[in-house]
Amino acid sequence: MVLQVMTQEKLEERVDAWFTYHSPSVDQVDKMQEIRREAYSLAILISEVEDMDPADKMTAIRKLREAIMAANAGIVCYQEPEPPIPEDAPLTTEEMIAAGKRLAEELKYKYGQPYVPPKASPPCSDCSGPVWIAGPWTCPSCGRHFSCGTLSR
Predict the structure, then answer these.
(1) Residue range 44-95, pLDDT digits in tens
(2) Residue 131 CB: number of other CB atoms within 10 A?
(3) Do the beta carbons of residue 131 and residue 121 sit within 8 Å?
(4) How many angstroms from the chain centroid is the CA of residue 7?
(5) Contact yes or no for 137/147 (Cβ under 8 A)
(6) CB atoms within 10 A of CB 68
(7) How far apart are CA 13 and CA 19, in angstroms?
(8) Which burial class, exposed, middle or buried, applies to 139 when counting CB atoms under 10 A from its CB (0-12, 13-18, 19+)?
(9) Angstrom distance (rounded) from CA 42 to CA 64
(10) Residue 119: which of 108, 134, 98, 129 has the closest Cα?
(11) pLDDT (tens digit, 9 = 90+) per residue, 44-54?
């Protein structure tokens, strides 16, 4: 048997995952229901055994419930490791949208309220280019600083 030592960083990641709500996907719900059905059959079988100490019977059923809870948590908390993305690989539009949605969901569950992305301001008065409110207040097209009105070019 190989003894694995868990680093503090890995332990903190696990604790964060264990105590964060994870909404199950449709496939995960199906798997969880299947486990619950099988466990229910086993619980009925245990409860029907007549020559068993009642305390042991209740302990067995309680441990079965714990096993279901641990299995459900394991199903929902497990995440496939994502393959590394090369540094120079550009993101597609679909990937950027998906990443934004994942971030919004993560922030919603982390802080308990929906994440609202920054909104674009009215277009630049000099060149009609887009200027973002959250970020440097400089028009990327003409270089006008909106905080002072000067030009950076």
Answers:
(1) 999 999 999 999 999 999 999 999 999 998 898 876 666 666 677 777 777 7
(2) 21
(3) yes
(4) 22
(5) yes
(6) 17
(7) 10
(8) buried
(9) 8
(10) 134
(11) 999 999 999 99
